[in-house]
Amino acid sequence: MKQPLLITKSKAAEYVQVAIGCSEKEFNRFIREAQEFDLKTLVCEEFYYELLNKSTEEPYTDILPGKEYTYREGTYYHEGLESVLSYFAYARYILKGNVVSTSHGFVTKKTPNSEPISQTEKKDLYYTHRQDANKLFENVAKYMDRKEINYKDCQDCGTSSVGNDIETRAMKW
After folding, report:
1. Is 70 a domain residue?
2. Cα angle 160, 85, 81; round to 5
3. Among residues 84, 38, 78, which one has the least CA distance to residue 59?
4. Helix (H/G/I), strand (E/B), else coil: 119
5. 63-80 confidence digits (pLDDT tens)
6. What pLDDT was estimated at residue 100?
7. Structural domain of residue 84, as residue ranges?
8. What is the rounded CA–CA span in Å between residue 120 and residue 9?
């Protein structure tokens, strides 16, 4: 069974410019990847699955859409996890959205009136949108810290000896 999606293409389009021609089904793939590969790494597993299963309950109804709140007599605002997921999903869409798998390999469509951006430009946009998503998450994290919502130190987040012998690295192209 597929996990529930926390946003839709139309919700993402409130934050980023998603092509009208991109189908809901196609964009859902990038939302699912953003949830599983990006958001899930920022929060502990327990919080992540509670968010998926209880997104219409408190405190998640304040965490997803964002809100204005008071802290130490000041007024603050966070954009919510909807914006974070929108930027992460859009970054993935930029990098992989117009690549089509055919029986002759992967292709990118060209038209007489337009030309696709280069792979370097795609990567730059990808990393820019990921940085934006992480900056947005910083404000959501501050909100959760200030409201004492446990999103990073859950019971499942203890140290594990499984996989400690494997070193992984992420490379920027």
Report:
1. yes
2. 85
3. 78
4. helix
5. 999 999 999 999 999 999
6. 73
7. 9-150
8. 26
